[in-house]
Structure formats: C-alpha cells, structure tokens
Amino acid sequence: MTENEPAPRLRFARRFGLEPEGSGPKSLYDSVGIDGVARPASWDTVLHLDADGEPGSTLEFVADTAGDEHIVAGDGPLAACADTLAPRIERPYVAHAVSIAPGRWLVCARRVSGVVSLPHVTGDEVSVSWIGERREQSVDGAEVTARFEPLEAFHRQGIDCAVVARRMTGELFLVELNLL
Question: How many Cβ atoms sit within 10 Å of the Cβ of residue 33?
C-alpha cells in the first residue's frame, strides 16, 4: 500500500459506492501530520454481515436514541444490520448497507449529533444558531420566527453554536451540532 492509497476498508467501501459526499482525493496537506488539524473519518465502523439479499441491493437507515430504526431508502435486512451494529457504535447514527454477494452485506455507519421529528416543517433544512444572546433560525435559508423545540435540546446556555437539521425521510431530520 502506497502513502496516498486509502486503507483496505475504505477501498472496499468505495468499490460499492459507500463513500459519503465531500470525500474523495485529499491533498497531502490535509493530513493531521502536516498541518496539525484532525479530520473526521468517513465511517465510524465498517463490517460484513451475512443476511439475505440480492447483490446490488442497498439500504440506508438512521437509528435514533429511542431504540428505533427508520428506513430512508432501499430495502434490506434492517433488523440484522442494526443488531450487528449495536455493539460497535453508539446511537444515534446513520448507516448504509449494500449487498455485495448473495447473502453477504457490507455495512458502514457513522455517529450523528441527533435524529429528531419535526412534523410541521415543510422545508428540507432547518438551521438554528445562538451567538451570545442573539438567536437566528431559518428553513431552507429563509429566516423564520417559529421555534423548533426538538432542536432547543442541543443548545446549552452560554455556548455559541449552530444546529442544522436535514430531512432524511418524512418528518425525520438528521441533526448536526456545530460549536462556534
């Protein structure tokens, strides 16, 4: 393996189209050893699973802190994937699975800040930020005055932060917390 060649698990995941958006070839200067800035891994865990499925079948789902899994896209062995991931990754997380051979799946998962239900939101992205005493919120980039109670739990008094919730499916949103 050369210096710029990805790790075997990442190569395997890429082979089956499981590379998250925004990843790809990186500059040598993106390495923590060069500039001292750590970069997050694409996936927190990658594993194989024996379960029924036709090669090429895919499954995308999110697992919330309440113990439920929600299918975002595809069709596959949801319970088997969640059970296999349980000892390896803490909830909440988002997972992608692809059947790589008859009865064989590749499953990748990464932790997320949260999964919330926002039933009355019509847009696909909700942003709420707190800077000092100032609070701003928007839906799909347009400022709104509505409060989003499920997102309030991510804000701790006195800490400047931004919460971005992106629709996964139906009223279910994936939450990303960014400290400012």
Answer: 6
**For 30-36, which contacts have Cβ atoms below 8 Å and span 24 or more sequence positions?**
none
pLDDT exceeds cutoff 90 at 3: no
- Count of Cβ atoms closer than 10 Å to residue 137 Cβ: 17
Residue 95 reports pLDDT greater than 90: yes
pTM of structure: 0.71
Bond into 92 cis (ω within 30): yes
In this structure, what token pair is assigned to residue 32? 């923590």
In the beta sheet, which residues pair with residue 129? Answer: 136, 162
Q: What residue has token string 């309030």?
A: 152
Q: Which of 22, 77, 20, 68 is nearest to 48 (CA)?
A: 77
pLDDT in tens, 104-136: 999 999 999 999 999 989 999 999 998 888 889
- Specify whether the CB–CB gap between 162 and 154 falls below 8 A: no
Q: The tokens of 31 are what?
A: 């390495």
Q: Is the pLDDT of residue 41 over 70?
A: no
- One-letter amino acid at 97 equals A
Tell me the residue ranges of DSSP E strands in the chain.
Answer: 45-50, 58-63, 69-74, 93-101, 104-111, 114-117, 125-131, 134-139, 142-143, 161-169, 172-179
- pLDDT tens digit string along 62-82? 999 999 999 999 989 999 999
